[in-house]
Design brief:
This protein is mainly alpha-helical. It has one domain. The chain contains 17 helices and no strands.
Amino acid sequence: MFQSLFNRLVIVLIFLLSLAGCSSTKLAYRYADWGIVWWVEDYIPMTDEQEAQLEKDIVELRQWHCSSELPRYSSWLSELKQDVRSGELQRDTVAHHQEQLFSFFLPIADRAKPAASRLLASLTDDQVEALANNMDESQQKLEEEFLKEDPKQTRQARAERTQERVERWLGDLNEQQVTIVEKWSENRGRQTEIWLEGRRNWQKALLETLDQREEAAFKDQVAYLIDNNAEVRGPRYQQMMNESRVAMAELMTSLLERADPEQLDFLLDRASTLRGDFNTLACNDESIEEGRTEQVGQL
């Protein structure tokens, strides 16, 4: 569950996906901490003290991220724009930008370890039981949704999700590109099954670690779960992720090779807008508190 928390936080902070219908990058970033607290509450019925501490930890995390990490994202987007303009979109270049994205995950996960350890160590037996039940319920829903589908439906749903994500950066895909996405999705095999298996393995390891939450080594055990996410999820998951990383780079290369000028302009505009938002985001406590006040006013 907490690895999913970090993944969600990174996705919000890097891609700044809209929260609660917000279309503005600045609004999504400003409200990220609230969204995370609410999401954690879906799994753990927190006390007022725990919620206050988590809010404080996330605000501090976002403050660090805003001042230390956003400049890295801005720099990467500047490099991406330069490569798009110069036509440098070969396999090696695409793989380089993919690795840049993956490099953004590690610092924030590392920085979030104290907050995760603090909250997990504070859980009561009843809260751990609630967490276990909620994780199991969530897992069952996902398995019922994805594993009971007809394989053809699963491939089609994967293709639709992939196309939607790609179009956020390239705009509408042409017929040839849609065909590429569909064939790529067909070749993902049992990826969904392996992902769900890995998810269950990680949750099991988390619950086993929580049995030791009063031990001195608990913080180190939590850090291990975070640092060795893929290993904890199992060898099949590790292999799948390695293959998926290569396959994704190949997919993006193929799509970019067949991109028309309008799509490249769309990509440039998307990168410029995002970079501009990163550069103008305020990283002070006043802006954070202002965002909280605005959101309360919208409730």
